[in-house]
């Protein structure tokens, strides 16, 4: 269980980026976070990852306070951030340096096969396409088997087709060990395809605005009317989150009742 | 049958083209670089040979070459070369060690940078040759003061290169190290060192270039052997061929040592995704 309790962040320059963000995320849940630009999504994710410290509130995973990077938490950024001086295989094995060589090699080989890049094991990162590089980044974050995987707009730099491919891929990989996924995205479609629950944030200061349970069976059919309905609910919530005239206390379900 | 004939016929021009372009790459590329100096040298040789110039002040390549051969035969050249090489090696070694250590410390710890860097930058503003009188007073006119001058010349580019490289390591890559909870030493070994390596190699090469520059200055300030001494000796005795011979050897040695650095570090930098004008090489 990942428990965020009134998490707030004020940057040294005075920007109030996040305020009293509270959420309980049970192990294995997929949560999508969506919201306008600058509403503190990355700030929240970096705090959960332990890369930045929250100014107020607490982040706990299984009752352990998080204020530095933790082995149970992995993160995938918008860019692949592969180490250019390591081969693809060594990049994937980067977090496994404590394992003996043989065990590491086996895990890496498995991960490579799992993301469909076995033939690229010896390639340099510069020789990969954007989508391939992001797959390597996913494999690198997943091989240490984190309990929580954070993804900050991981597919936003990719074309629509590759994005869909990687979304399916991510779900496949998720099914292996079922970590908690927290996915920041700008793509409503992506949120509804992947998530069990969508959290909508609003800006200035960044805070939680609405919570939408997706409640669709997997695998999800992007063309079904139910899928469309959920999408519309998210879109409406998103619209209202950006409207200054809507009070904060608007209960999430009034949003849902709109259609 | 016709099919195979046709396909081979189709493939053939391509194959020939790639083979010949391969050969072109292997041999002609380096030759291209020699073309200009070679033409100039031959032209000058011809000009003297044809009597358009007596070549006394600017001796033709054949006379420079003859001088080199003569110096080689007497064993003198070897002595000068080893002396100069030793000075450059010692100065380069000292300058590199000092520059690397101080640069690394200043790059890694903000406190050290605020403490040290202003002083180093102020010292850097002094033209290094200005140290010569002081070095001679302090260290005598023999080897120590020469090596010290060369070391000073090498120190600054290495220091700046290392510090700048560390300061410009991509925060995003460092964050990858942090998410995998690397300890301080592991972060240095697995992230910082490889990240600064390309810039470090450049710094070393610049440093070495300055080392060669300063060895000449050092040998001008009173030496009884060394290539710089050959230059001075050639000037005082009016032997331009000897000066040009020394210059040629400086060029060869400078280029060779630079190339050695490149050669040794190339395997470590194969991963680089750099812009290579004129295609892969
Ligand atoms: N390092 C920083 N220092 C100061 N202010 C920052 C810093 N990072 C972000 N901010 C500010 O905090 C607010 C939230 O930024 P954040 O990056 O979390 O937004 P976001 O929701 O991820 O936006 P986007 O969808 O555009 O990525 C913004 O107003 C931003 O300007
Ligand atoms: Mg962001």
Q: Given the C-alpha coordinates, what overall shape of chain B results?
A: flat
Contiguous uncertain segments of 5+ residues of chain A = 251-259
Q: Most extensive interface, residues per chain?
A: A-B, 24 and 18 residues
Q: Please report the distance between the alpha carbons of the first and last residues of chain A.
A: 33 Å
Helix-strand category of chain B: mainly alpha
- What fraction of the residues of chain B are assigned to beta strands by DSSP? under 5%
Bound molecules: adenosine-5'-triphosphate, magnesium ion
Any idea of the CATH class of chain B? Mainly Alpha
Overview of the structural elements:
The complex is a heterodimer of chains A (259) and B (281). Chain A has helices at 41-49, 88-92, 101-114, 130-142, 160-177, 188-194, 225-241, 252-256; strands at 2-10, 16-25, 30-35, 56-61, 64-65, 73-76, 148-152, 180-184, 197-202, 207-213. Chain A has 259 residues and is α/β, with parallel strands linked by helices. Chain A starts with a strand and ends with a helix. With 281 residues, chain B is mainly alpha-helical. Chain B is 80% helix and 0% strand. Chain B has a single domain (59-266), classed as MetI-like (MetI-like fold, Orthogonal Bundle). The A-B interface holds A 49-51, 68-71, 73-75, 77, 79, 81, 83-86, 94-95, 97, 124-126, 144 and B 172-173, 175-176, 178-181, 186, 190-191, 194-195, 197, 270-273. The structure holds adenosine-5'-triphosphate (ATP) and magnesium ion. Magnesium ion (MG) binds next to α1 of chain A. Residues 11, 13, 15, 17, 37-43, 206 of chain A line the site of adenosine-5'-triphosphate.
């Amino acid at each position: 269980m990942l428990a965020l309790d009134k998490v707030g962040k004020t940057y040294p320059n005075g920007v109030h980026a996040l305020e009293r963000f509270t959420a309980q995320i049970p192990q294995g849940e997929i949560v999508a976070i969506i919201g306008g630009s600058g509403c503190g999504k990355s700030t929240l994710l970096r705090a959960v990852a332990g890369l930045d410290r929250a100014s107020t509130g607490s982040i706990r995973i299984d009752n352990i306070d998080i204020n530095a990077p933790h082995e149970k938490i992995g993160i995938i950024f918008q860019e692949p951030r592969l180490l250019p001086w390591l081969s693809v295989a060594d990049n994937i094995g980067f977090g496994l340096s404590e394992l003996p060589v043989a065990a590491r090699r086996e895990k890496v080989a498995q991960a490579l096969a799992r993301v469909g890049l076995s033939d690229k094991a010896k390639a340099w990162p510069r020789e990969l396409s954007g989508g391939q590089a992001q797959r390597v980044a996913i494999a690198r974050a997943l091989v240490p088997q984190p309990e929580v995987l954070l993804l900050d707009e991981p597919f936003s730099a990719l074309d629509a087709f590759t994005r869909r491919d990687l979304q399916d891929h991510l779900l496949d990989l998720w099914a292996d060990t079922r970590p908690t996924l927290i996915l920041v995205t700008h793509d409503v479609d992506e949120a509804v395809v992947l998530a069990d629950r969508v959290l909508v944030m609003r800006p200035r200061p960044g805070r939680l605005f609405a919570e939408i349970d997706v409640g669709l069976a997997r695998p999800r059919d992007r063309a079904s009317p139910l899928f469309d309905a959920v999408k519309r609910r998210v879109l409406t919530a998103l619209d209202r989150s950006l409207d200054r005239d809507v009070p904060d206390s608007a209960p999430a379900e009034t949003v849902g009742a709109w259609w | 049958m016709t099919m195979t004939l046709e396909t081979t016929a189709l493939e053939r021009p391509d194959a020939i083209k790639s083979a010949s372009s391969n050969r072109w790459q292997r041999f002609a590329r380096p030759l291209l670089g020699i073309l200009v100096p070679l033409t100039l040298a031959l032209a000058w040789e011809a000009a003297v040979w044809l009597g358009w110039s007596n070549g006394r002040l600017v001796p033709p390549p054949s006379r420079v070459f003859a001088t080199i051969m003569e110096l080689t035969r007497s064993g003198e050249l070897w002595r000068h070369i080893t002396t100069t090489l030793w000075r450059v090696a010692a100065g380069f070694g000292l300058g590199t060690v000092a520059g690397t250590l101080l640069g690394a410390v200043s790059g890694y710890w903000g406190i050290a940078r605020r403490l040290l860097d202003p002083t180093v930058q102020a010292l850097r503003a002094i033209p290094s040759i200005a140290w010569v009188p002081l070095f001679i007073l302090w260290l005598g006119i023999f080897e120590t003061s020469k090596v010290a001058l060369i070391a000073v010349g090498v120190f600054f580019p290495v220091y700046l290169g290392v510090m700048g490289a560390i300061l410009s390591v991509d925060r995003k890559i460092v964050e990858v190290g942090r998410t995998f909870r690397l300890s301080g030493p592991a972060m240095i070994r697995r992230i910082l060192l490889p990240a600064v390596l390309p810039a470090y190699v450049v710094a070393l090469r610049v440093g070495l270039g300055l080392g060669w520059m300063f060895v000449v200055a050092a040998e001008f300030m009173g030496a009884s052997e060394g290539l710089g001494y050959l230059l001075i000796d050639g000037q005082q005795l009016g032997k331009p061929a000897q000066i040009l011979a020394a210059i040629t050897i400086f060029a060869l040695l400078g280029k060779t040592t630079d190339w050695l650095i490149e050669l040794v570090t190339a395997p470590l930098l194969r991963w680089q995704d750099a812009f290579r004008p004129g295609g892969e090489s």
